[in-house]
Design brief:
Strand order of the largest sheet: 12-11-8-13-16-17-19-20
Number of strands: 21
Number of domains: 2
CATH superfamily of the largest domain: CoaB-like
Helix content: 25-40%
Strand content: 15-25%
Oligomer: single chain
Structural class: alpha/beta
CATH topology of the largest domain: Rossmann fold
Bound molecules: cytidine-5'-triphosphate
Radius of gyration: 26 Å
Shape: elongated
Largest sheet: 8 strands, mixed
């Protein structure tokens, strides 16, 4: 789903088009979004808070009042939202947004947020064409606000003209496009799959990694507009915009990684720590008896990246069987910004499955277990988190 795991704050202001906001909320939820609603006082005169609470399954915020769950609803919502959409947006709200007049909870939330803002104006043609409205819209566009519509058609009171709120489907499309470009201009490196360390021309030391998690992360980054390079051992299809470097061994992976200087590196590969010291040029045969396999260490690719002078934002993975305590220590030892740990002994988690249950560990010792979910959704949530961290760096 295009908005899977995305958090959209829907602002509803006082216009007759508010009836379409209920439909917009439904469409956003159908597209996979988590939706919360803020309504201005005038907005509640056109659409019931109970309707929006019923559709979203969340309480609707209408003022600054402390409700027990939040002492500062505007800043909490501002941090929560991946995107804020105001539909319908009246002339009054547009004017307040243009000057940052945060005397209502909706404009206050916008001014407290760094998320993209989408505004769908709805008003009579004359109000839309009024010079101050046009000036305010131009100011908002200059400030990076995305203005959708208005469209032409039937207006309130039997009038016809420009000023009609854009259809919910069109607004959803704009939201999908806006969120999918959130990584434009960012270069990303992902390592994926399990390395294969040859013993002879036939056999290798390998592991069960399928590359699914790494590839989901790479595809999500490409969908969000990043320039992505993937160094992978896996043959799974990747988004055609991605530059793919196929490798087999840890040494080849290390060599390929050394050629890339990304803004963000996500090391999802399961890299063999050791490789056979000698690779037999001919096939080892049974009659020679059990081979004497001497092993030597592979480079630690993650560590090499973490020690670069110009270091990317670095995300490591840790596959652990049993307690995740070692993972917290690993986050510090390996010098990562985030560590994605998973307990591979749990059913439905880890190698070669389509789902994963991960715990996000920060080097400061904090950890957050995420529920079991499809790998594609882990990828989407991980990028939400990385984007938030990047914006506060
Ligand atoms: N990694 C790497 N190069 C290696 C080994 C691991 O880049 N030679 C990366 C993996 O891609 C992963 C992280 O390091 O992001 C942790 O991998 P893991 O195998 O869990 O860690 P190890 O360093 O092998 O630690 P241990 O064997 O003690 O669990």
């Amino acid at each position: 789903m295009p908005l899977s795991g995305r958090r959209i704050l829907l602002g509803v202001t006082g216009g007759i088009a508010a009836y379409k906001s209920a439909y917009l909320a439904r469409r956003l939820i159908e597209a996979g979004a988590d939706v919360r609603v803020v309504m201005t006082r005038a907005g509640t005169e056109f659409l019931g808070t109970a309707t929006m609470a019923g559709i979203t399954g969340q309480p609707v915020t209408t003022d600054f009042s402390v409700d027990g769950s939040s002492v500062s609803p505007h800043t909490d919502l501002a941090r929560w939202a991946d995107l804020i959409v105001i539909a319908p947006a009246t002339t009054a709200t547009i004017a307040r947004l243009a000057v940052g007049l945060s005397d209502d909870v909706l404009v206050a939330t916008v001014t407290a947020s760094t998320a993209p803002i989408v505004v769908a104006p709805a008003m009579h043609t004359e109000m839309w064409e009024y010079p101050a409205t046009q000036r305010n819209i131009a100011r908002l566009t200059e400030d990076g606000v995305i203005v959708v519509g208005p469209a032409s058609g039937d207006l309130a009171g039997g009038d016809v003209g420009s000023g009609r709120m854009e259809e919910p489907e069109v607004i959803v499309e704009v939201i999908v496009t806006t969120l999918s470009s959130s990584l434009s201009g960012v270069s990303v490196l992902v390592t994926a799959g399990g390395t294969r360390e040859p013993i002879d021309p036939v056999r290798y030391i390998g592991n069960r990694s399928s590359g699914k998690m790494g590839h989901a992360i790479a595809n999500e980054a490409a969908a969000r507009g990043a320039k992505v390079t993937v160094v992978t051992t896996a043959g799974v299809e990747l988004d055609r915009r991605i530059e793919v470097i196929r490798v087999e061994t840890a040494q080849q992976m290390a060599d390929a990684v050394a050629t890339v200087a990304p803004d963000v590196a996500i090391m999802a590969a399961a890299v063999a720590d050791f490789r056979p010291a000698q690779v037999s040029s001919g096939k080892l045969v049974r009659t020679d008896g059990p081979p004497d396999l001497e092993l030597e260490p592979n480079p630690d690719i993650l560590m090499t990246v973490s020690q670069r002078r110009v270091r990317p934002f670095l995300v490591g993975f840790a596959a652990e069987s049993g307690s995740l305590e070692r993972a917290a220590e690993k986050a510090v030892r390996k010098g990562v910004d985030l560590l994605v740990a998973n307990d591979i002994s749990q059913p439905g988690s880890g190698f070669a499955t389509d789902t994963n249950q991960v715990t996000i560990i920060s080097p400061d010792g904090t950890s957050e277990p995420w529920p079991m979910m499809p790998k594609t959704e882990v990828a989407s949530r991980l990028w939400d988190l990385v984007e938030r961290r990047l914006s506060t760096r």
